[in-house]
């Protein structure tokens, strides 16, 4: 499958895409023995996007260590450069937390009109969060992306940002390419999120920065709070009030006060729990494995998978718990065994929304039935993840049922058949999940296109092979 990468790459992004094309290929994962070793998770994708964006909206210099050097984050960097931020990558291979990135920001409301279309590749987080920044600047900009991103719903950010004063012209449903006619005279709103989405929350809060007065997002179900944490770190006034009576357990009102002076800061990005998940599940389903993944963010609003795996009987210890860059971090020590099927509470979904594909693989190897509900949002990800997972399970002989918003997987406790070829549909998490299935199945599992892995986890196959996996070009 040839990836449709859209048009008009900005120069730094073109470089990333060309290097990626070299890797664009069918991959196969062969059955492996037990996995062993210590590895470091790549930088957190959500936090990396935000570090670049807030650095661009701050005055003075921001430095970032541990930034994810993946294609999605590079797309955000390219877009912010087009708005006037100076972003440099110092390849010093710094100790512990990786290379240094330096950002000289343009300040809240200080971006300039981009001279060309902003090409965001596969990255929904770039598109939705940047929409908040662009709508609150008095110029016109156009965003586009690859075939996956051009299919994804944008109405969810267009609606609140239009209420604040932005104007949008996109394809049907507001899909990309999307023109944004921004304004520096936005009006503050109070907005209740109709879907549990940290991207929508963040887009509104970002627009609220260049808006006089107080902008409030009402969040009935808690979602990842990296934006709130990092905005405070940069000096913004952000008030979070728990409102259980009004909103139910975990409901919050989040208010940002407009026109703060954000000042450059030093940031260390922890490892990504959503990326660590692949190595954790691989080790958990290979009996006899003993793997430690160092430096993994374990923010409770991201750690739902780890709770679920423990419910399934996985042996996962959080070691060396500490704080990195204002986020809780631990080394995850995983020992392999046989998991058991469980019922996953639907209210846990926002804290593990990106992890259902890899959980489905754990469920396929577990003994018994695993029920996952409340998954409607999976249909709006890089691919329709419910359909992609179901097709991949089917191709590899795993008994399951898929509903409109739920998935039921029947494991036997014995290795699944495997032997299938899985279509990844430009979706990195589908690609990595089914490669993990290949390690534990009776026959090898192939994926049609490994290149999307570069969006979030460059070096995935090498890292997994270093632990004892057998992933190679097919
Ligand atoms: C993200 C939020 C989630 C997640 C995505 C990253 C973020 O999306 O799936 O990978 O960085 O805010 P939604 O906000 O659509 O749930």
From TrEMBL:
<dbReference type="Pfam" id="PF00275">
    <property type="entry name" value="EPSP_synthase"/>
</dbReference>
<feature type="binding site">
    <location>
        <position position="197"/>
    </location>
    <ligand>
        <name>3-phosphoshikimate</name>
    </ligand>
</feature>
<dbReference type="GO" id="GO:0008652">
    <property type="term" value="P:amino acid biosynthetic process"/>
</dbReference>
<keyword id="KW-0808">Transferase</keyword>
<feature type="binding site">
    <location>
        <position position="45"/>
    </location>
    <ligand>
        <name>3-phosphoshikimate</name>
    </ligand>
</feature>
<feature type="binding site">
    <location>
        <position position="152"/>
    </location>
    <ligand>
        <name>phosphoenolpyruvate</name>
    </ligand>
</feature>
<dbReference type="InterPro" id="IPR036968">
    <property type="entry name" value="Enolpyruvate_Tfrase_sf"/>
</dbReference>
<comment type="function">
    <text>Catalyzes the transfer of the enolpyruvyl moiety of phosphoenolpyruvate (PEP) to the 5-hydroxyl of shikimate-3-phosphate (S3P) to produce enolpyruvyl shikimate-3-phosphate and inorganic phosphate.</text>
</comment>
<feature type="binding site">
    <location>
        <position position="124"/>
    </location>
    <ligand>
        <name>phosphoenolpyruvate</name>
    </ligand>
</feature>
<feature type="binding site">
    <location>
        <position position="385"/>
    </location>
    <ligand>
        <name>phosphoenolpyruvate</name>
    </ligand>
</feature>
<comment type="pathway">
    <text>Metabolic intermediate biosynthesis; chorismate biosynthesis; chorismate from D-erythrose 4-phosphate and phosphoenolpyruvate: step 6/7.</text>
</comment>
<dbReference type="InterPro" id="IPR006264">
    <property type="entry name" value="EPSP_synthase"/>
</dbReference>
<feature type="domain" description="Enolpyruvate transferase">
    <location>
        <begin position="31"/>
        <end position="462"/>
    </location>
</feature>
<dbReference type="InterPro" id="IPR023193">
    <property type="entry name" value="EPSP_synthase_CS"/>
</dbReference>
<feature type="binding site">
    <location>
        <position position="199"/>
    </location>
    <ligand>
        <name>phosphoenolpyruvate</name>
    </ligand>
</feature>
<feature type="binding site">
    <location>
        <position position="45"/>
    </location>
    <ligand>
        <name>phosphoenolpyruvate</name>
    </ligand>
</feature>
<keyword id="KW-0963">Cytoplasm</keyword>
<comment type="similarity">
    <text>Belongs to the EPSP synthase family.</text>
</comment>
<protein>
    <recommendedName>
        <fullName>3-phosphoshikimate 1-carboxyvinyltransferase</fullName>
        <ecNumber>2.5.1.19</ecNumber>
    </recommendedName>
</protein>
<feature type="binding site">
    <location>
        <position position="429"/>
    </location>
    <ligand>
        <name>phosphoenolpyruvate</name>
    </ligand>
</feature>
<feature type="binding site">
    <location>
        <position position="199"/>
    </location>
    <ligand>
        <name>3-phosphoshikimate</name>
    </ligand>
</feature>
<dbReference type="GO" id="GO:0003866">
    <property type="term" value="F:3-phosphoshikimate 1-carboxyvinyltransferase activity"/>
</dbReference>
<keyword id="KW-0028">Amino-acid biosynthesis</keyword>
<feature type="active site" description="Proton acceptor">
    <location>
        <position position="354"/>
    </location>
</feature>
<dbReference type="GO" id="GO:0009073">
    <property type="term" value="P:aromatic amino acid family biosynthetic process"/>
</dbReference>
<dbReference type="GO" id="GO:0009423">
    <property type="term" value="P:chorismate biosynthetic process"/>
</dbReference>
<dbReference type="GO" id="GO:0005737">
    <property type="term" value="C:cytoplasm"/>
</dbReference>
<dbReference type="InterPro" id="IPR013792">
    <property type="entry name" value="RNA3'P_cycl/enolpyr_Trfase_a/b"/>
</dbReference>
<dbReference type="InterPro" id="IPR001986">
    <property type="entry name" value="Enolpyruvate_Tfrase_dom"/>
</dbReference>
<feature type="binding site">
    <location>
        <position position="50"/>
    </location>
    <ligand>
        <name>3-phosphoshikimate</name>
    </ligand>
</feature>
<comment type="subunit">
    <text>Monomer.</text>
</comment>
<feature type="binding site">
    <location>
        <position position="354"/>
    </location>
    <ligand>
        <name>3-phosphoshikimate</name>
    </ligand>
</feature>
<keyword id="KW-0057">Aromatic amino acid biosynthesis</keyword>
<feature type="binding site">
    <location>
        <position position="46"/>
    </location>
    <ligand>
        <name>3-phosphoshikimate</name>
    </ligand>
</feature>
<feature type="binding site">
    <location>
        <position position="381"/>
    </location>
    <ligand>
        <name>3-phosphoshikimate</name>
    </ligand>
</feature>
């Amino acid at each position: 499958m040839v990836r449709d990468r859209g048009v008009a790459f900005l120069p730094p992004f073109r470089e990333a895409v060309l290097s990626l094309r070299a890797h664009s290929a069918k991959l196969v994962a062969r059955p492996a023995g037990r996995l062993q070793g210590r590895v470091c998770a790549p930088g957190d994708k959500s936090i990396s996007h935000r570090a670049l964006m807030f650095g661009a909206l701050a005055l003075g210099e921001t430095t970032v260590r541990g930034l994810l050097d993946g294609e999605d984050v590079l797309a955000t960097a390219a877009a912010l450069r087009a708005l006037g931020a100076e972003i440099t990558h110092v390849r010093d291979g710094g100790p512990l937390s990786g290379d240094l990135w330096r950002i000289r920001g343009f300040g809240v409301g200080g971006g300039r009109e981009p001279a060309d279309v902003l090409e965001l590749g596969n990255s929904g987080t770039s598109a939705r969060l940047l929409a908040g920044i662009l709508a609150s600047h008095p110029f016109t900009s156009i965003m586009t992306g690859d075939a996956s991103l051009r299919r994804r719903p944008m109405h969810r950010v267009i609606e609140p940002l239009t209420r604040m004063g932005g104007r949008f012209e996109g394809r049907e449903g507001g899909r990309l390419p999307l023109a944004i006619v921004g304004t520096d005279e936005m009006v503050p709103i109070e907005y209740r999120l109709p879907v549990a989405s940290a991207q929508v929350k963040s887009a509104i809060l970002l627009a609220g920065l260049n808006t006089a007065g107080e902008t409030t997002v009402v969040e009935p179900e808690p979602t990842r709070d990296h934006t709130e944490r990092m905005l405070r770190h940069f000096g913004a006034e952000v008030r979070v009030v728990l409102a259980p009576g009004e909103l139910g357990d975990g409901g919050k009102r989040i208010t940002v006060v407009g026109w703060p002076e954000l000042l450059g800061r030093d940031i260390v990005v922890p490892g990504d729990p959503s990326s660590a998940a692949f190595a954790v599940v691989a080790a958990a389903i290979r009996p006899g494995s003993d793997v430690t993944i160092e430096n993994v963010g374990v923010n409770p609003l991201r750690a739902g998978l780890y709770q679920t795996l423990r419910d399934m009987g996985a042996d996962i210890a959080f070691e060396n718990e500490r704080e990195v860059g204002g986020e809780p971090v631990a080394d995850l020590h995983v020992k392999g065994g046989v998991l058991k099927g469980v019922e996953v509470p639907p209210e846990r979904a926002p804290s593990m929304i990106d992890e259902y594909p890899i959980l489905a693989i754990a469920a396929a190897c577990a003994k018994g039935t695993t029920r996952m509900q409340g998954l409607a949002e999976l249909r709006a990800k890089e691919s329709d993840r419910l359909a992609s997972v179901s097709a991949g399970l089917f191709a590899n002989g795993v008994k399951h049922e898929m509903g409109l918003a739920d998935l039921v997987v029947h494991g036997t406790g014995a290795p699944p058949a495997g032997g299938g070829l899985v279509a990844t549909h430009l979706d990195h998490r589908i690609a990595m999940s089914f490669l993990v299935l290949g390690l534990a199945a009776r026959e090898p599992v192939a994926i049609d296109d490994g290149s999307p892995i570069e969006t979030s986890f460059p070096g995935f196959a090498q890292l997994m092979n270093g632990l004892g996996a057998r992933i190679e070009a097919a």
